[in-house]
Specification:
The protein has strands at 3-7, 10-13, 18-26, 33-39, 46-51, 59-60, 68-73, 78-83, 92-99, 115-116, 120-125. Strands 2, 4, 5, 6, 9, 10 and 11 form a seven-stranded mixed beta sheet that branches. Strands 1-3-8-7 form a four-stranded antiparallel beta sheet, with no helix packed on it. It is globular, with a radius of gyration of 13 Å. The chain is an all-beta fold and 126 residues long. The protein is 0% helix and 48% strand.
Length: 126
């Protein structure tokens, strides 16, 4: 079993950058598909970015494409989300998720992921 924990959230101004990290406090996720999701108040949880275990097949949501970059370091058992040019609409709780498989057309669905972190708050002021 894998236990995930996110860090790096905070309060920033529009245009600033943040780097979120996801670490495995128990187990290893080097063979898992990893993803970042986010959930704003009153909205459904949505996928932000996804990466397969080997670093291939990277997917980004249209709303963050060109601004966010996903990466992983399997040797360190760590997973990252670099967020640049932040906007107020990026405000949300961000979650790290790990899945045992990669689903080509349904990677964006929350039930495709087996393990979740507790989330970290990102607030972007205008």
């Amino acid at each position: 079993q894998v236990q995930l924990v996110e860090s790096g959230g905070g309060l920033v101004q529009a245009g600033d950058s943040l780097r979120l990290s996801c670490a495995a406090s128990k187990g290893t996720f080097s063979s898992y598909t990893m993803a970042w999701f986010r959930q704003a108040p009153g909205k459904d949880r949505e996928v932000v970015a996804v990466m397969r275990w080997n670093g291939e097949t990277i997917k980004y949501s249209d709303s963050v494409k060109g601004r966010f970059t996903i990466s992983r370091d399997n040797a360190k058992n760590a997973f990252y989300l670099q967020m640049d040019s932040l906007k107020p609409e990026d405000t949300a709780v961000y979650y790290c998720a790990a899945g045992e498989s990669y689903y080509l057309t349904t990677y964006h669905l929350t039930h495709r992921y087996d393990y979740w972190g507790p989330g970290t708050q990102v607030t972007v002021s205008s």
